[in-house]
Amino acid sequence: MPETPFVGQRAEVLELDDAWLVDPVSGREGRGSVRVQDGVLVSVEWAGDASGSEGSDAGTAERPSILVAPAFVDIHVHLRQPGREDAETIASGLAAAAHGGYGTVCAMANTTPAIDTAGLVEDELATARRSGSPVRLLPYGTITAGRRGETLSHMGEMADAGAVGFSDDGSPVADASLFRNALAYAGSLGRMLVEHAEEPSLVKGAEANEGLVATILGLRGWPAAGEEGAVARDIAILAEVVASYPGTATPHLHLTHLSTAGSVELVRRAKAAGLPVTCDVTPHHLAFHDGWVAGDRRFAWEAAGTPWSGGTADALPFDQSTRVNPPLRTPADALALWAGLADGTVDAIATDHAPHTQVDKLVEFGDALPGISGIETAWSLVQAGVDAGLLPLARAVDVLTTGPARVLGRSASAPSGRRRSREALVPGLVEGVPATLVLIDTADTWEIAPETLRSKGHNTPLLGRRLRGRVLATIVDGRFAYADLEVPEPIA
Q1: Could you give the CA distance from residue 89 to residue 79 in angstroms, rounded to a whole number?
Q2: Which residues of 294-332 are buried (b: 16+ CB within 10 A; e: fewer)?
């Protein structure tokens, strides 16, 4: 699809007279109007009581269909550059992010070569600037050199170059002693360690969630213990590091793309004990379930209580776009993730946007590279859960904006003096600052199709489906990152 002519241009005049405003920074939500002029949010006017509580004016029937909120923050995306530009480039990935409503993305380090030096961090940042997109790219560096799990990477130099954290995502740090040292080192640098929780000995060769679906389809099962055992180990090591280095910089462990009820419960207990741990979940683990591998296309909350059991399906089984890591779990697991978001155990929704080429996906199911291209469909899946009553709208916006910004903000200022505060990433609906906003028509639908996606990766099981929640514009630091401001009549 051709680039929108608005990309990179300053938002000269933009007025919305009747919209639903959600500002997670101030905690306010309600009907109101906004005006952007010369890239600056010059006017925010709230109508009636906008205290943030869900009052009589907050019912979905009374809400204007246009939602205005801070642009989203994604703390887990794969942009594939360098090395796999056929699957995604930084430019195409940032365009996809803007189409999904995102103003900031954090790029994982599992590229080819892996981002394990300061020079590669600087190259990523320079490539993002050259793309012309206003979307902010925040790079991760690796935990270990080359992601090989043998020696620590040059974390200090990468932190100085702009790395916001460290992760070997896709390859868990199996050596417990090395992981312990990495936590302590990253903590001393004021950076978080983002861990892909997986016990390799339990999941080797696994293809789908261990259970009835995998059994019926003849797929090798991936047990919940393959994730939960690693989560328990990581939290235990974190507790030891915190106790062993009193008075020093506090380590920060972030567990990414958790997928099971047991993992969420382990984090809940760790937080209750006061440990510095955060976590995220993905839109596909919230909305899908293991039945999708068999062709069931009900959302997780629709399948709860009546999971797929070998009957008729809505699509063909073995759709390679449903192969992800960690695998799609049961409907009960998905509902536990929603509950974790609702009670604050889960800090953020992160897309784990993982674009792949057809060459890497259209193969035998177990040989397909794992991952879903999901940054453009994330809001629509989250909105579907909100519409189903699983999460209040204000909380949904929070875990897409200030939640991930708080995760990043737990890291202290870098040795170079640069600080990544949540206010910088999510300024909120505040007059007099450069506009960083997303505008969404929550009543309109859009069709997920190759021609409607900006990402090079079309590996999503949502192709051909219409979903509610169409992003109209994404503005970052006063400039359009994406815009399609012709608002049609809502589709029933």
Answers
A1: 6
A2: bbbbbbbbebeeebbeeeeeeeebbbbbbbbbbbbbbbe
**Domains, the chain, ranges and CATH?**
71-423 (3.20.20.140)
Neighbouring C-beta atoms of residue 451, cutoff 10 Å: 7
Residue 254: count of CB within 10 angstroms of its CB: 25
Catalytic residue ranges = 352
Local structure of residue 192 (DSSP, 8 states): E
CB 280 within 8 A of CB 222: no
Kind of pairing between the strands at 437-447 and 466-476: antiparallel
- Cα angle, residue 460 at apex, residues 459 and 462 outer, rounded to 5°: 150
- The CA-CA-CA angle for residues 429, 431, 435, to 5°, reads 60
Please indicate, yes or no, whether the overall pTM of this predicted structure exceeds 0.70. yes
Residues 148-180 have pLDDT tens digits of 999 999 999 999 999 999 999 999 999 999 999
Q: Where are the alpha helices (DSSP H) in 100-224?
A: 118-130, 155-161, 176-188, 200-203, 212-217
Amino acid identity at 255: L
**DSSP tag of 362:** S
Residue 102 bridge partners (DSSP): 72
Q: How far apart are CA 344 and CA 346, in angstroms?
A: 5
Query: Is 77 strand, coil or helix?
Result: strand
User: Chain centroid to CA 385: how far?
Assistant: 16
Going by pLDDT thresholds of 50, 70 and 90, the confidence category of residue 245 is confident
